[in-house]
Specification:
By secondary structure, this protein is of the alpha/beta class. It is built from seven helices and eight strands, in the order αβαβαβααβαβαβββ.
């Protein structure tokens, strides 16, 4: 079942072509929905166990074992993502293409301690960053609040002051 909050997040993210999901865990539904809409999605998680709890990611979701803190600190975050081991159910699921670039970095239920490294990674990739927080925590980084049906999304602007790199946020 697609919730209103889930649909709102998809509606915000579908405007980007190449996306990176931070901390996918056992929830591949958002990445799958974006892939079904023709978007390229790569997801990362520190734990293969979390991702494999539900039998692994969907066949068309490229999931890699990586830590957002290490990626944010890497000399070349794209190369670090490309080198990260795949998480998948079968060898067929483990095949993947080089990332090339990222237009948006997103996360659901992003804990406060991972917000700064997630934003740092997005900025290093020159990508927009969108996230939701754990219900009891607020954002600890400067954000624009986007109130949408069923949820509040937090938008971190690109360094040029725009959400998509082309102009001001309306």
């Amino acid at each position: 079942m697609v919730t209103t909050a889930h649909r709102s997040f998809i509606d915000e993210l579908v405007g980007f072509d190449r996306l990176l999901e931070i901390g996918m865990g056992a929830r591949d539904d958002l990445a799958v929905a974006l892939r079904e809409r023709g978007r390229t999605v790569v997801a990362v998680d520190v734990s293969a166990d979390a991702v494999n709890r539900t039998g692994g990611p969907a066949v068309d979701v490229d999931v890699r074992r990586a830590d957002v803190v290490s990626l944010a600190d890497a000399a070349d975050p794209i190369a670090a993502l490309d080198a990260a081991p795949a998480i998948g159910r079968t060898e067929r699921d483990r095949r993947r293409e080089p990332i090339g670039g990222v237009d948006a970095v997103y996360a659901r239920n992003l804990p406060a301690e991972l917000q700064r490294p997630t934003v740092a990674l997005a900025r290093r990739l020159d990508a927009t960053c969108l996230f939701t927080t754990l219900g009891f925590e607020g954002p600890v980084v400067p954000v624009k609040r986007l109130t949408r049906p069923g949820t509040t999304l937090f938008l971190v602007e690109r360094t040029d002051g725009s959400a998509d790199g082309t102009g001001p946020i309306e």
